[in-house]
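Team,

Forwarding the record for the chain on the shared tracking sheet. I've put the sequence and predicted structure together so nobody has to dig through attachments.
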Amino acid sequence: MALAVDGDRIAAIGPTDDVLQRYRGADVYDGRGKAILPGPVNCHMHMSAVLSRGFNEDFGFPNSVRLAVSPNSLLEGDEATLMIEVAALEALRTGTTTIVGSPEVLGPAA
């Protein structure tokens, strides 16, 4: 089996002869005894907790100053959705391929 990469994208996967025929000028690396793995999989993520993570970095976990307010309680309107979007963008930026997340702050479906 062979894998062809064009820029930063997987261009082809298949039998070595077929891939080499399609990509004649390609650099060839011997991958015997090696593995190709996908990007990271985040198996447990509370995507709206991005804001809490910032609080935990500042105050420790559990927070050492015993704040009476939960960071997520400070969110209004579409801010909870924005936090989920920030979490998704961070995942994309770090190469995460799969997220099993919890949209608990979004409330019931409209």
